[in-house]
Amino acid sequence: MARIEIYTTPTCPYCIAAKRLLTQKGAAFEEINVAGDPDGRRAMMARADGRTTVPQIFIDGRHIGGCDDLHELNDKGGLDPLLAAGAGE
Q1: Does residue 10 have a cis bond before it (omega within 30 degrees)?
Q2: What is the pTM of this model?
Q3: Any idea where the domains of the chain sit in the sequence?
Q4: CB within 8 A of 3, min separation 6: which ones?
Q5: Phi then psi for 8, rounded to 5 degrees?
Q6: Model confidence over 24-83: pLDDT tens digits?
Q7: What's 4-84's CATH class?
Q8: 47-82 as b/e, with b when 16 or more CB fall inside 10 Å?
Q9: Which of 23, 40, 66, 79 fits a 20 to 30 Å CA distance from 10?
C-alpha cells in the first residue's frame, strides 16, 4: 500500500469522514494530530501550500487536499490507483 499521512484534530468531523473512507478502502495511514501543536500545524501548512484546515492528506508525499478532495478523487476513480501504487514495494 501507499504511504498515507493525514493531519487531523480529534473532534473534526471531516477528519473522521476522511479516516473512515481510508479505513473502508483497507488503507493504513499515519495520523498526525495537530491539536494544540503549533509546530505540527506549521509543518502541515508548509506541506499543504498554506492550507490551515484539517484534514490535510498526503499519499506517497503527494498533497491530496482535504476531506472533500479525497472523496472527489475517490468518486472519479482516482483514489484506488494511488492506494495500490505502493502495493508492490
Answers
A1: no
A2: 0.93
A3: 4-84
A4: 30, 59, 60, 61, 86
A5: -140, 175
A6: 999 999 999 999 999 999 999 999 999 999 999 999 999 999 999 999 999 999 999 999
A7: alpha beta
A8: ebeeeebbbbbbbeeeebbbbeebeebbeeeebeeb
A9: 79
